[in-house]
Amino acid sequence: xxxxxxxxxxxMVQIFDESGHAFGVTVVEAGPCTVIQKRExxxxxxxxxxxxxxxxxxxxxxxxxxxxxxxxxxxKEFSAEDFDSLAVGQEIRADxxxxxxxxxxxxxxxxxxxAGVMKRWNFGGGRxxxxxxxHRIPGSVGQCAWPSRVFKGKKxxxxxxGAKVTAPSVKVVDVRADENLIFLKGPVPGAKxxxxxxxxx
Length: 201
Known about the structure:
Strand order of the largest sheet: 1-2-11-10-7-12
Largest sheet: 6 strands, antiparallel, barrel
Number of helices: 2
């Protein structure tokens, strides 16, 4: 079967295990995804999040018309073991995952805007007493006459978050294929409504 699918992060809820202990899980609306194209190297292109034709460029609209499907906003390629048995236009649902599976989740982290070194890099900051004026600044950033520049990769203030993040080991707690829902225990990047890609390990 396909090694992953596209989903939408809905938020977090609390559930109970068999012994009665409560723990938090992230609810992801996984699909249903539609097979748009069958590519080389046993890969298939899936579509998710149906949109109007006016929201899609004409070249991409031609791809959907060739596949005989409605337009989708998100397209992503995944590997498929049973490549030959898949058909263009076929729906892929959440039941490709099973409770107990360990997956990796790829998404865009929450954007937090421009941040200083203490928030962005966990700097300790300067002393707070005895007339110090260096409380939250980064401090020295370079050398004197040589090399007269700041080395690349120096930890400095800048934009924090809003980057591609992969959570490598997230456990599937429950799957509700009839509702297209997957319950995941572990870090799932992004805010509510973020598009995520779930891949089998």
